[in-house]
Write a structure and sequence with these properties.
It is an enzyme of class 2 (transferase). The chain is built from 17 helices and 17 strands. The chain has 491 residues and is an alpha/beta fold. Bound molecules: adenosine-5'-diphosphate-glucose.
Length: 491
Protein backbone atom coordinates (compact mmCIF):
# COMPACT_ATOMS: atom_id res chain seq x y z
CA UNK A 1 0.00 0.00 0.00
CA UNK A 2 1.00 3.60 -0.49
CA UNK A 3 0.29 5.89 2.45
CA UNK A 4 0.87 9.63 2.69
CA UNK A 5 0.67 11.43 6.03
CA UNK A 6 -0.24 15.09 5.97
CA UNK A 7 0.65 16.56 9.35
CA UNK A 8 1.88 19.67 11.11
CA UNK A 9 4.59 17.78 13.09
CA UNK A 10 6.98 14.88 12.72
CA UNK A 11 9.57 14.14 15.42
CA UNK A 12 12.36 14.93 15.81
CA UNK A 13 12.48 17.51 13.04
CA UNK A 14 9.22 19.21 14.11
CA UNK A 15 8.02 18.34 17.59
CA UNK A 16 5.81 20.38 19.86
CA UNK A 17 4.35 17.35 21.64
CA UNK A 18 3.10 13.81 21.18
CA UNK A 19 1.69 14.32 17.67
CA UNK A 20 5.23 14.49 16.28
CA UNK A 21 6.20 11.23 17.99
CA UNK A 22 3.16 9.46 16.59
CA UNK A 23 3.59 10.61 12.99
CA UNK A 24 7.21 9.45 12.99
CA UNK A 25 6.73 6.19 14.93
CA UNK A 26 3.66 5.05 13.02
CA UNK A 27 5.26 5.82 9.64
CA UNK A 28 8.34 3.84 10.56
CA UNK A 29 6.34 0.85 11.72
CA UNK A 30 4.10 0.79 8.63
CA UNK A 31 7.12 1.13 6.35
CA UNK A 32 8.85 -1.73 8.16
CA UNK A 33 5.82 -3.83 7.33
CA UNK A 34 6.58 -3.37 3.66
CA UNK A 35 4.42 -0.40 2.70
CA UNK A 36 5.44 2.88 1.11
CA UNK A 37 5.03 5.84 3.43
CA UNK A 38 5.66 9.53 2.76
CA UNK A 39 5.07 12.53 4.98
CA UNK A 40 4.08 16.04 3.90
CA UNK A 41 4.94 18.83 6.34
CA UNK A 42 5.16 22.61 6.41
CA UNK A 43 8.69 23.94 6.05
CA UNK A 44 8.94 25.97 9.26
CA UNK A 45 11.92 28.27 9.65
CA UNK A 46 12.48 27.03 13.22
CA UNK A 47 12.39 23.27 12.63
CA UNK A 48 15.45 21.13 13.42
CA UNK A 49 17.19 21.12 10.04
CA UNK A 50 20.04 19.09 11.57
CA UNK A 51 17.71 16.08 11.64
CA UNK A 52 17.12 16.11 7.86
CA UNK A 53 19.42 14.20 5.57
CA UNK A 54 19.80 15.09 1.90
CA UNK A 55 17.46 18.07 1.81
CA UNK A 56 16.95 19.23 -1.77
CA UNK A 57 14.27 20.91 -3.84
CA UNK A 58 12.05 18.26 -5.32
CA UNK A 59 9.49 20.51 -6.96
CA UNK A 60 10.49 24.09 -7.69
CA UNK A 61 7.37 25.73 -8.99
CA UNK A 62 4.20 24.65 -7.27
CA UNK A 63 1.45 27.26 -7.72
CA UNK A 64 -1.19 26.79 -5.06
CA UNK A 65 -4.54 28.46 -5.84
CA UNK A 66 -5.32 30.95 -3.08
CA UNK A 67 -8.12 33.53 -3.23
CA UNK A 68 -8.28 34.73 -6.83
CA UNK A 69 -4.61 34.08 -7.54
CA UNK A 70 -1.99 31.56 -6.54
CA UNK A 71 0.94 31.36 -4.13
CA UNK A 72 4.24 30.21 -5.52
CA UNK A 73 5.76 27.40 -3.41
CA UNK A 74 8.78 25.14 -3.52
CA UNK A 75 8.62 21.61 -2.23
CA UNK A 76 11.77 20.30 -0.57
CA UNK A 77 12.44 16.67 0.08
CA UNK A 78 14.72 14.92 2.57
CA UNK A 79 15.01 11.97 4.94
CA UNK A 80 14.23 12.36 8.62
CA UNK A 81 15.93 9.40 10.27
CA UNK A 82 14.93 7.23 7.32
CA UNK A 83 11.45 8.64 6.65
CA UNK A 84 10.87 10.38 3.33
CA UNK A 85 9.47 13.84 4.03
CA UNK A 86 8.27 16.62 1.72
CA UNK A 87 8.39 20.14 3.10
CA UNK A 88 6.18 22.85 1.61
CA UNK A 89 7.69 26.29 1.48
CA UNK A 90 5.45 29.12 0.27
CA UNK A 91 7.08 32.24 -1.16
CA UNK A 92 4.57 34.86 -0.16
CA UNK A 93 4.43 37.92 1.98
CA UNK A 94 2.25 36.06 4.46
CA UNK A 95 5.37 34.23 5.67
CA UNK A 96 3.06 31.43 6.82
CA UNK A 97 5.80 29.22 8.23
CA UNK A 98 8.52 31.78 8.91
CA UNK A 99 7.25 32.89 12.30
CA UNK A 100 9.82 31.33 14.61
CA UNK A 101 7.11 29.05 16.07
CA UNK A 102 4.93 26.14 14.99
CA UNK A 103 1.64 27.31 16.47
CA UNK A 104 0.19 30.24 18.34
CA UNK A 105 -0.24 32.87 15.60
CA UNK A 106 -3.48 34.80 15.12
CA UNK A 107 -3.87 33.43 11.62
CA UNK A 108 -3.19 29.76 12.42
CA UNK A 109 -6.45 28.82 10.65
CA UNK A 110 -5.23 30.42 7.44
CA UNK A 111 -1.71 29.03 7.77
CA UNK A 112 -2.90 25.45 8.05
CA UNK A 113 -5.75 25.82 5.57
CA UNK A 114 -3.08 26.92 3.13
CA UNK A 115 -0.86 23.99 4.11
CA UNK A 116 -3.76 21.55 3.56
CA UNK A 117 -4.48 23.03 0.16
CA UNK A 118 -0.80 23.03 -0.82
CA UNK A 119 -0.34 19.40 0.25
CA UNK A 120 -3.28 18.30 -1.91
CA UNK A 121 -2.13 20.42 -4.82
CA UNK A 122 1.32 18.85 -4.54
CA UNK A 123 -0.14 15.32 -4.61
CA UNK A 124 -2.32 16.28 -7.57
CA UNK A 125 0.34 18.02 -9.68
CA UNK A 126 3.11 15.52 -8.98
CA UNK A 127 0.80 12.65 -9.88
CA UNK A 128 1.04 10.99 -6.51
CA UNK A 129 -2.01 8.85 -5.93
CA UNK A 130 -1.73 7.23 -2.48
CA UNK A 131 -4.17 4.57 -1.39
CA UNK A 132 -4.52 6.29 1.94
CA UNK A 133 -4.09 9.89 3.01
CA UNK A 134 -3.63 9.97 6.76
CA UNK A 135 -4.42 13.36 8.32
CA UNK A 136 -3.88 14.50 11.89
CA UNK A 137 -5.80 16.99 14.04
CA UNK A 138 -7.62 20.18 13.03
CA UNK A 139 -4.65 21.55 11.09
CA UNK A 140 -5.39 19.07 8.31
CA UNK A 141 -9.18 18.85 8.76
CA UNK A 142 -9.76 20.59 5.43
CA UNK A 143 -7.83 17.93 3.49
CA UNK A 144 -10.73 15.45 3.20
CA UNK A 145 -13.14 18.33 2.60
CA UNK A 146 -11.17 19.65 -0.37
CA UNK A 147 -10.39 16.14 -1.60
CA UNK A 148 -14.05 15.20 -1.85
CA UNK A 149 -15.41 18.55 -2.94
CA UNK A 150 -12.69 19.54 -5.41
CA UNK A 151 -9.80 17.19 -6.16
CA UNK A 152 -12.03 14.16 -6.56
CA UNK A 153 -13.27 15.69 -9.81
CA UNK A 154 -9.73 16.03 -11.12
CA UNK A 155 -8.64 12.43 -10.94
CA UNK A 156 -8.30 11.87 -7.18
CA UNK A 157 -11.45 9.86 -6.63
CA UNK A 158 -9.78 6.72 -5.29
CA UNK A 159 -7.93 8.19 -2.35
CA UNK A 160 -9.27 7.27 1.08
CA UNK A 161 -8.75 9.42 4.17
CA UNK A 162 -8.02 8.33 7.71
CA UNK A 163 -8.33 11.23 10.16
CA UNK A 164 -6.73 10.88 13.60
CA UNK A 165 -7.73 13.20 16.42
CA UNK A 166 -4.95 13.62 18.97
CA UNK A 167 -6.66 16.40 20.86
CA UNK A 168 -10.31 17.46 20.65
CA UNK A 169 -9.68 20.70 22.48
CA UNK A 170 -8.19 22.54 19.53
CA UNK A 171 -10.62 22.41 16.62
CA UNK A 172 -9.71 25.26 14.27
CA UNK A 173 -12.65 27.65 14.52
CA UNK A 174 -12.74 29.80 11.40
CA UNK A 175 -14.87 32.25 9.49
CA UNK A 176 -16.09 32.26 5.90
CA UNK A 177 -12.82 33.85 4.77
CA UNK A 178 -11.30 30.38 4.74
CA UNK A 179 -13.83 29.26 2.10
CA UNK A 180 -12.86 32.15 -0.17
CA UNK A 181 -9.15 31.56 0.31
CA UNK A 182 -9.26 27.84 -0.44
CA UNK A 183 -11.70 28.16 -3.34
CA UNK A 184 -14.39 26.11 -1.62
CA UNK A 185 -16.54 29.28 -1.73
CA UNK A 186 -20.20 28.21 -1.49
CA UNK A 187 -20.98 29.56 2.01
CA UNK A 188 -24.56 28.31 2.09
CA UNK A 189 -23.39 24.79 1.44
CA UNK A 190 -20.59 24.59 3.98
CA UNK A 191 -22.45 26.51 6.70
CA UNK A 192 -24.65 23.49 7.19
CA UNK A 193 -24.76 21.59 10.46
CA UNK A 194 -24.16 18.39 8.50
CA UNK A 195 -20.95 19.82 7.08
CA UNK A 196 -18.62 22.37 8.68
CA UNK A 197 -20.87 24.63 10.77
CA UNK A 198 -19.73 24.64 14.39
CA UNK A 199 -22.22 22.88 16.64
CA UNK A 200 -22.29 25.75 19.15
CA UNK A 201 -21.28 28.87 17.27
CA UNK A 202 -23.60 29.29 14.29
CA UNK A 203 -21.35 31.95 12.76
CA UNK A 204 -18.25 29.76 12.68
CA UNK A 205 -16.86 26.89 10.66
CA UNK A 206 -15.14 24.07 12.51
CA UNK A 207 -12.21 22.52 10.65
CA UNK A 208 -11.97 19.47 12.89
CA UNK A 209 -15.66 18.81 12.33
CA UNK A 210 -14.97 18.99 8.59
CA UNK A 211 -12.29 16.36 9.03
CA UNK A 212 -14.68 14.09 10.92
CA UNK A 213 -17.58 14.51 8.50
CA UNK A 214 -15.61 14.03 5.29
CA UNK A 215 -13.07 11.32 6.22
CA UNK A 216 -13.59 7.66 5.50
CA UNK A 217 -12.44 6.77 8.97
CA UNK A 218 -11.92 8.76 12.16
CA UNK A 219 -10.06 7.60 15.21
CA UNK A 220 -8.69 8.97 18.40
CA UNK A 221 -5.62 7.59 20.10
CA UNK A 222 -6.98 5.18 22.70
CA UNK A 223 -10.14 3.08 23.04
CA UNK A 224 -11.11 4.63 26.37
CA UNK A 225 -10.80 8.16 25.03
CA UNK A 226 -12.94 7.18 22.03
CA UNK A 227 -15.63 6.18 24.49
CA UNK A 228 -15.18 9.39 26.54
CA UNK A 229 -15.33 11.51 23.38
CA UNK A 230 -18.76 10.14 22.52
CA UNK A 231 -20.26 10.11 25.97
CA UNK A 232 -18.65 12.94 27.94
CA UNK A 233 -17.63 16.55 27.52
CA UNK A 234 -14.00 15.87 26.51
CA UNK A 235 -14.82 16.12 22.81
CA UNK A 236 -15.50 19.83 23.41
CA UNK A 237 -18.82 20.01 21.62
CA UNK A 238 -18.18 17.40 18.93
CA UNK A 239 -19.97 14.55 20.76
CA UNK A 240 -23.06 14.87 18.60
CA UNK A 241 -21.01 14.81 15.39
CA UNK A 242 -19.18 11.70 16.62
CA UNK A 243 -22.50 10.11 17.47
CA UNK A 244 -23.76 10.75 13.92
CA UNK A 245 -20.58 9.27 12.48
CA UNK A 246 -20.12 6.53 15.09
CA UNK A 247 -19.98 3.78 12.45
CA UNK A 248 -16.60 5.08 11.26
CA UNK A 249 -15.17 6.19 14.62
CA UNK A 250 -12.97 4.23 17.02
CA UNK A 251 -9.85 4.43 19.20
CA UNK A 252 -6.45 2.92 18.42
CA UNK A 253 -3.92 3.07 21.23
CA UNK A 254 -0.67 4.83 20.29
CA UNK A 255 2.66 3.13 20.56
CA UNK A 256 6.09 4.50 21.34
CA UNK A 257 9.15 4.00 19.20
CA UNK A 258 11.42 1.56 21.05
CA UNK A 259 14.33 2.57 18.83
CA UNK A 260 14.19 5.98 20.46
CA UNK A 261 12.68 5.24 23.85
CA UNK A 262 14.59 2.25 25.14
CA UNK A 263 17.04 2.27 28.09
CA UNK A 264 18.98 -0.58 26.49
CA UNK A 265 20.14 1.53 23.55
CA UNK A 266 19.33 5.13 24.48
CA UNK A 267 22.29 7.28 23.45
CA UNK A 268 21.16 10.21 25.60
CA UNK A 269 21.60 8.37 28.90
CA UNK A 270 24.98 7.66 30.49
CA UNK A 271 24.17 4.15 31.77
CA UNK A 272 22.24 1.64 29.66
CA UNK A 273 20.10 -0.94 31.48
CA UNK A 274 17.58 -3.71 31.03
CA UNK A 275 15.32 -5.75 33.31
CA UNK A 276 18.17 -8.18 33.91
CA UNK A 277 20.89 -5.56 34.29
CA UNK A 278 18.96 -3.09 36.37
CA UNK A 279 21.84 -1.44 38.26
CA UNK A 280 22.15 1.20 35.51
CA UNK A 281 18.83 2.69 36.64
CA UNK A 282 20.32 3.80 39.98
CA UNK A 283 23.41 5.14 38.21
CA UNK A 284 21.19 7.26 35.98
CA UNK A 285 19.44 8.56 39.08
CA UNK A 286 22.83 9.70 40.34
CA UNK A 287 23.63 11.26 36.94
CA UNK A 288 20.31 13.11 36.95
CA UNK A 289 21.01 14.47 40.44
CA UNK A 290 24.47 15.61 39.40
CA UNK A 291 23.12 17.29 36.29
CA UNK A 292 20.36 19.15 38.16
CA UNK A 293 22.37 19.80 41.33
CA UNK A 294 20.08 17.81 43.61
CA UNK A 295 21.45 16.33 46.81
CA UNK A 296 22.35 12.66 46.83
CA UNK A 297 19.95 11.38 49.45
CA UNK A 298 18.02 8.21 50.19
CA UNK A 299 14.82 9.40 48.49
CA UNK A 300 12.97 8.60 45.29
CA UNK A 301 12.79 11.13 42.45
CA UNK A 302 9.29 12.01 41.27
CA UNK A 303 9.16 13.55 37.79
CA UNK A 304 6.81 15.34 35.43
CA UNK A 305 7.58 15.75 31.71
CA UNK A 306 5.11 17.45 29.40
CA UNK A 307 3.42 20.54 28.14
CA UNK A 308 2.35 22.81 31.02
CA UNK A 309 -1.22 23.19 29.91
CA UNK A 310 -4.65 23.03 31.53
CA UNK A 311 -5.06 19.57 29.96
CA UNK A 312 -2.11 18.21 31.91
CA UNK A 313 -3.59 19.13 35.29
CA UNK A 314 -1.15 21.92 36.14
CA UNK A 315 -2.75 22.52 39.55
CA UNK A 316 -2.09 18.92 40.50
CA UNK A 317 1.42 19.07 39.03
CA UNK A 318 2.03 22.08 41.25
CA UNK A 319 0.66 20.23 44.26
CA UNK A 320 2.78 17.17 43.44
CA UNK A 321 5.95 19.30 43.64
CA UNK A 322 5.27 20.42 47.20
CA UNK A 323 3.78 17.12 48.30
CA UNK A 324 6.90 15.28 47.15
CA UNK A 325 9.45 17.59 48.72
CA UNK A 326 7.53 17.57 52.01
CA UNK A 327 7.13 13.80 52.00
CA UNK A 328 10.59 12.41 51.68
CA UNK A 329 10.98 12.57 47.91
CA UNK A 330 12.63 14.80 45.33
CA UNK A 331 10.88 16.41 42.38
CA UNK A 332 12.06 17.13 38.84
CA UNK A 333 9.92 18.95 36.28
CA UNK A 334 10.56 19.46 32.58
CA UNK A 335 7.82 21.42 30.89
CA UNK A 336 7.02 24.21 28.53
CA UNK A 337 3.97 26.46 28.63
CA UNK A 338 2.49 28.37 25.74
CA UNK A 339 -0.06 30.17 27.88
CA UNK A 340 1.59 33.28 29.42
CA UNK A 341 -0.19 32.97 32.78
CA UNK A 342 0.95 29.37 33.30
CA UNK A 343 4.44 30.23 32.14
CA UNK A 344 4.61 33.09 34.63
CA UNK A 345 3.30 30.91 37.44
CA UNK A 346 5.89 28.17 36.93
CA UNK A 347 8.69 30.70 36.31
CA UNK A 348 7.82 32.15 39.71
CA UNK A 349 7.90 28.67 41.30
CA UNK A 350 11.23 28.00 39.65
CA UNK A 351 12.65 31.20 41.07
CA UNK A 352 11.21 30.40 44.50
CA UNK A 353 12.57 26.84 44.57
CA UNK A 354 15.81 27.63 42.79
CA UNK A 355 18.15 26.66 45.61
CA UNK A 356 16.07 23.81 46.97
CA UNK A 357 18.27 20.72 47.30
CA UNK A 358 15.36 18.36 46.50
CA UNK A 359 13.70 20.07 43.58
CA UNK A 360 14.51 21.25 40.09
CA UNK A 361 12.12 22.85 37.63
CA UNK A 362 13.33 23.13 34.04
CA UNK A 363 11.16 25.30 31.81
CA UNK A 364 11.51 24.85 28.07
CA UNK A 365 11.78 22.02 25.58
CA UNK A 366 14.76 19.71 25.98
CA UNK A 367 14.62 16.31 24.29
CA UNK A 368 17.93 15.10 25.67
CA UNK A 369 17.12 16.00 29.28
CA UNK A 370 13.75 14.29 28.88
CA UNK A 371 15.56 10.99 28.20
CA UNK A 372 17.73 11.38 31.30
CA UNK A 373 14.69 12.18 33.44
CA UNK A 374 12.78 9.08 32.27
CA UNK A 375 15.87 6.99 33.04
CA UNK A 376 16.86 8.63 36.33
CA UNK A 377 13.49 9.20 38.01
CA UNK A 378 11.71 6.54 40.08
CA UNK A 379 8.15 7.76 39.72
CA UNK A 380 6.46 9.73 36.93
CA UNK A 381 3.31 11.64 37.66
CA UNK A 382 0.62 12.22 34.99
CA UNK A 383 -2.36 13.93 36.66
CA UNK A 384 -4.13 14.97 33.45
CA UNK A 385 -7.60 16.48 33.36
CA UNK A 386 -8.10 14.51 30.13
CA UNK A 387 -5.59 12.51 28.11
CA UNK A 388 -6.36 11.11 24.65
CA UNK A 389 -3.52 8.62 25.00
CA UNK A 390 -0.48 9.96 26.83
CA UNK A 391 3.01 8.94 25.89
CA UNK A 392 4.91 9.90 29.02
CA UNK A 393 3.45 7.08 31.14
CA UNK A 394 4.30 4.55 28.40
CA UNK A 395 7.84 5.90 28.12
CA UNK A 396 8.09 5.83 31.93
CA UNK A 397 7.04 2.17 31.96
CA UNK A 398 9.73 1.25 29.45
CA UNK A 399 12.35 2.96 31.65
CA UNK A 400 11.19 1.30 34.86
CA UNK A 401 9.78 4.58 36.16
CA UNK A 402 6.55 3.84 37.98
CA UNK A 403 3.61 5.92 36.69
CA UNK A 404 1.14 7.59 39.04
CA UNK A 405 -1.71 8.66 36.79
CA UNK A 406 -5.24 9.96 36.83
CA UNK A 407 -7.65 7.36 35.45
CA UNK A 408 -8.73 9.07 32.24
CA UNK A 409 -8.39 8.36 28.51
CA UNK A 410 -5.38 6.37 27.41
CA UNK A 411 -3.97 6.41 30.95
CA UNK A 412 -6.79 3.99 31.84
CA UNK A 413 -5.79 1.71 28.98
CA UNK A 414 -2.11 1.54 29.92
CA UNK A 415 -1.65 1.81 33.70
CA UNK A 416 -3.07 -0.75 36.13
CA UNK A 417 -3.15 0.01 39.84
CA UNK A 418 -0.87 -2.10 41.99
CA UNK A 419 -3.34 -2.35 44.86
CA UNK A 420 -6.80 -2.02 43.36
CA UNK A 421 -6.89 -3.10 39.72
CA UNK A 422 -9.72 -5.57 39.15
CA UNK A 423 -8.77 -6.85 35.73
CA UNK A 424 -5.10 -7.72 36.01
CA UNK A 425 -3.44 -10.24 38.29
CA UNK A 426 -0.93 -8.71 40.75
CA UNK A 427 2.02 -9.73 38.58
CA UNK A 428 0.63 -7.72 35.64
CA UNK A 429 0.03 -4.47 37.49
CA UNK A 430 2.37 -1.61 36.73
CA UNK A 431 1.60 1.64 38.56
CA UNK A 432 -0.88 3.69 40.56
CA UNK A 433 -4.17 5.19 39.44
CA UNK A 434 -6.35 7.82 41.11
CA UNK A 435 -9.62 9.14 39.77
CA UNK A 436 -10.80 12.42 41.25
CA UNK A 437 -9.32 15.66 40.00
CA UNK A 438 -8.18 16.95 43.40
CA UNK A 439 -5.19 17.07 45.70
CA UNK A 440 -6.37 14.27 48.01
CA UNK A 441 -6.75 11.89 45.11
CA UNK A 442 -3.30 12.72 43.78
CA UNK A 443 -1.84 12.22 47.25
CA UNK A 444 -3.50 8.80 47.54
CA UNK A 445 -1.51 7.62 44.52
CA UNK A 446 1.73 9.44 45.21
CA UNK A 447 1.80 8.48 48.86
CA UNK A 448 1.49 4.77 48.03
CA UNK A 449 4.27 5.00 45.44
CA UNK A 450 6.67 6.94 47.69
CA UNK A 451 5.96 4.64 50.67
CA UNK A 452 6.54 1.51 48.63
CA UNK A 453 9.92 2.91 47.54
CA UNK A 454 10.93 3.62 51.15
CA UNK A 455 9.50 0.67 53.03
CA UNK A 456 9.31 -2.15 50.49
CA UNK A 457 12.15 -1.46 48.04
CA UNK A 458 12.12 -5.06 46.73
CA UNK A 459 8.43 -4.79 45.90
CA UNK A 460 9.02 -1.43 44.29
CA UNK A 461 11.66 -2.97 42.05
CA UNK A 462 9.29 -5.80 41.10
CA UNK A 463 6.68 -3.20 40.16
CA UNK A 464 9.24 -1.34 38.04
CA UNK A 465 10.15 -4.51 36.20
CA UNK A 466 6.53 -5.51 35.66
CA UNK A 467 6.09 -2.16 33.91
CA UNK A 468 9.16 -2.75 31.76
CA UNK A 469 7.70 -6.05 30.59
CA UNK A 470 4.73 -4.37 28.92
CA UNK A 471 4.94 -4.02 25.15
CA UNK A 472 3.74 -0.55 24.22
CA UNK A 473 5.77 -0.45 21.03
CA UNK A 474 4.24 0.31 17.63
CA UNK A 475 3.98 -3.39 16.91
CA UNK A 476 0.30 -3.85 17.86
CA UNK A 477 -0.97 -0.41 16.82
CA UNK A 478 1.00 -0.69 13.56
CA UNK A 479 -0.81 -3.91 12.78
CA UNK A 480 -4.17 -2.31 13.57
CA UNK A 481 -3.50 0.69 11.32
CA UNK A 482 -2.35 -1.52 8.43
CA UNK A 483 -5.53 -3.57 8.77
CA UNK A 484 -7.55 -0.37 8.80
CA UNK A 485 -5.78 1.07 5.73
CA UNK A 486 -6.35 -2.17 3.87
CA UNK A 487 -10.03 -2.17 4.76
CA UNK A 488 -10.40 1.47 3.67
CA UNK A 489 -8.72 1.10 0.33
CA UNK A 490 -11.15 -1.69 -0.62
CA UNK A 491 -14.15 0.37 0.45
N1 LIG B 1 9.40 20.25 27.71
C1 LIG B 1 9.64 19.13 27.06
N2 LIG B 1 10.90 18.77 26.73
C2 LIG B 1 11.14 17.61 26.08
N3 LIG B 1 10.19 16.74 25.70
C3 LIG B 1 8.93 17.06 26.00
C4 LIG B 1 8.57 18.25 26.69
N4 LIG B 1 7.23 18.28 26.83
C5 LIG B 1 6.75 17.17 26.26
N5 LIG B 1 7.78 16.43 25.76
C6 LIG B 1 7.66 15.16 25.03
O1 LIG B 1 6.55 15.27 24.15
C7 LIG B 1 5.77 14.07 24.20
C8 LIG B 1 4.46 14.42 24.88
O2 LIG B 1 3.57 13.35 24.81
P1 LIG B 1 2.04 13.54 25.29
O3 LIG B 1 1.39 12.23 25.20
O4 LIG B 1 2.03 14.27 26.59
O5 LIG B 1 1.53 14.48 24.10
P2 LIG B 1 0.61 15.77 23.90
O6 LIG B 1 -0.27 16.04 25.06
O7 LIG B 1 1.51 16.84 23.45
O8 LIG B 1 -0.22 15.29 22.61
C9 LIG B 1 -1.47 14.76 22.25
O9 LIG B 1 -1.16 13.74 21.28
C10 LIG B 1 -0.52 12.60 21.82
C11 LIG B 1 -0.21 11.69 20.65
O10 LIG B 1 -1.35 11.17 20.08
C12 LIG B 1 -1.38 11.92 22.86
O11 LIG B 1 -0.65 10.85 23.44
C13 LIG B 1 -1.77 12.91 23.94
O12 LIG B 1 -2.68 12.30 24.84
C14 LIG B 1 -2.39 14.15 23.32
O13 LIG B 1 -2.70 15.11 24.31
C15 LIG B 1 6.61 13.06 24.96
O14 LIG B 1 7.48 12.43 24.08
C16 LIG B 1 7.42 13.96 25.93
O15 LIG B 1 8.62 13.36 26.33
Amino acid sequence: MYIVHIASECAPVIKAGGLGDVVYGLSREVENRGHTVEIILPMYDCMRYDHIWGLHDAYKDLYVPWYDGAIHCSVYCGWVHGRLCFFIKPHSEDYFFDRGCYYGCNDDNMRFAFFSKAALEFLFISNKRPDIIHCHDWQTGLVPVMLYEMYKWHGMANQRVCFTVHNFKHQGIAGSEILKATGLNNEMYYYDYDRLRDNFNPFALNLMKGGIVYSNHVNTVSPHHAWEARYSEVSYGLGHTLELHHYKFDGILNGIDYNIWNPEIDTFIPHKYTIDKFAGKAQNRKALRDRLLLRDDDKPIVAFVGRLDGQKGVDLVHHAIYYSIHNNAQFVLLGSATEPSINKWFAHEKFFLNNHPDCHLELGFNEELAHLIYAGADIIVVPSVYEPCGLTQMIGLKYGTVPVVRGVGGLMDTVFDKDYDQHHSPDKRNGYVFYQNDNHALESGLERAISLWHYYPKEFEILQKQGMEYDYSWNNPGQQYVRLYDYLRHK
